[in-house]
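Reopening this ticket.

The earlier resolution said the output was attached, but the attachment link was broken on my side. Pasting everything inline this time so it's all in one place.
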Amino acid sequence: MTISANAGLRQIISAEQIQKRVRELGRQISDDYRGDSVIALGILENSFLFMADLVREIDIPLICSFIKPTYKTSEQSGSPILEIFFSHELQITGKKILLIEGLVHSGVTTEFLMSDLRGRGAASVKVVTLLDRQSARRVSLQPDYFGFLVDDTFVCGYGLSSAEQTGRNLPYLAASP
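Inline output:
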């Protein structure tokens, strides 16, 4: 599938490689949580395709929901603050949470979300990410499960992009040349 608006992009991970790795992650997560149920919590926007495919590969009981972290600037300090919006208010006390990311970059947002979920009473919080950019990490966060390591190149496709870029609808992962 070629999308002319994305002609300057080069494929770095094929759709077949992604699906194979998603199946492997689904098996590993299912084995690790065998006998339990999980709340699969996708971080919008970059996780939505990965989450859709991943939860179909997980064969334990789970509830799916989404959160959308939003950054705003504090009027008092002028520094960014993070607000979190849940699709609906989840009852997470005593529950096992699987936080699903499309890309873990600095780790700051992920670490904040994990801390917030634990503070709300989650029994455990684990992270699965399609892409892990360890070279950009600003905190000592290591995802529990990851699909692929990537460098600092801008990556899009398979649900990932930015608001200003196209390519989110590609079935594979691509980078700028």
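Reporter confirms the inline version is readable. The CA atoms of residues 60 and 108 lie 29 Å apart. The beta strands are 10-13, 38-43, 62-73, 80-86, 96-104, 124-132, 145-149, 155-156, 173-175.
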